[in-house]
Amino acid sequence: MFASISLRVLLACTLFAFSLPAQDEAKLLVAFAKAFVPPPKGKATVADKLAALQATAELDSGKTAEVLVEGWNDLASELTTVDVLRDTKNKEMAELIRGQEGSDNRTLPKPQFDRLLVLKPEIAALRMKGDQLRDLHEKVGERLAKLRRRDSALWLLQKVCGQKKLALPLKLAAAKAVGGAAVEVIEELAAALAKSREPEEQLVLIDAMAQAGKTAKAHATPVIALLSSKEEAVAERAALALAKVAVPEAIGPMIALLARIDGQTRLRVAAALEVLTGQQFGITVTSWQAWWQAEADMFLAGGKPLGDGKPSNRRGNDNLYYFGIPQDESKSILYVIDCSGSMKAPVMWKSKEAVTETTRLEACKVELMRALALLRPTQKFAILWYNDLPHFWEPKLQLATKEAIEKAQAFVKTLQHASSTNIHDSLEQSFRLVGLGANDKYYGVQLDTIFLLTDGSPTTPDGKLDSTDKILIGVRSWNPLKRVTIHCIAMGKDLNEGFLRQLASENGGEFKQF
Question: Which pTM was predicted?
């Protein structure tokens, strides 16, 4: 314990050094690497690791980049171990309460009840440990993203950005560093992008070009070429980057892309076009085409400013909305429904027919059944309801056939209110619905929209108030490309409105309160 504290103090003392001899840099990097060795060999606490990270604040070199990447990977290994163990215990808890998930008065035989009492604090402790590690993981990524020297950026470009075996969130952090150092490495970055063939590598390098912004104007050609990619995520990411690089040659190909895509990708590409051009035609392809036919020569001649526009607010048919948020542009939707005990609170609910007094849950059930009936047969959907644990209606996304909708509506009618408000695990399970994990292909997700409904502040499985910051950090790690839009719907006033607004904002969604 004394050694651990001493290490922390020693490392902290170096925080404000403005320049370091090479031997001191080497010592700090050795200390960092040692602190991040995962258990059982590694003995450093999370506080020790944080101090070791903070001690690197003034370091910027290829060797620093290498050691930070190794530390990120070591931390990922430790975090995976904790998450797997927590998931195992969560499954055991779910099995113990099977058949009584929606009951406030669960009755269990004494052995099962005693086991439940043991599991809850164990799960809470693992969740706390995972939160600490995930928070630190994000901080290591942020530190990596701030490297700016040429040797740092080149090492990351050559050793990280195109490596198949490395996790995408790590590569995206490296891309921020490479893009931030674009003045030093723009030629190498553009050459790497022109040669890249793997979708994930292209996504990462496109992000680096986006980070470079207008610095990359002279090298926009390979980004424009990727607007034609068969991989929808790559084409979308190229459009988002070109809105920042701001070259007129991108406008025509972006309009062509808009004409051949649909779903949430169409909305994001339309927004990128609006930012790039300053026009606000939304997803109306014919308006974009007519405008470009009239204005192309002037824009291509460089006679118009680019990259300073604002996305428009989409307007549509209220009948296609779910709680005032459009659902018709989603290919696949997950409805995440709060069924905690507080959802029994009374509410005056206005429908087309009348204003009636009912409970929050009953009002939400009516609205969900209405929304389900509006889905097209080509759309997919799923339902997750949650209290102290998340529960899926069906384990896979369903095509919105008449039979599936009727079956889902019948299930919704059976939902009951009980227990607490475990939003963290519900969102975590939401991303697992399509098999997402630390090393999966985030760009190929089947799910594109989550509607999260709640009437309270989030809690842990044992009913204690949860950290909203830790939930946001978790979602950033599960949704690094923001390809899944998260809309947040709040019922009542006794909830954390700021958290829900931020969750929606960070993930391209809308916030509505009723």
Answer: 0.91
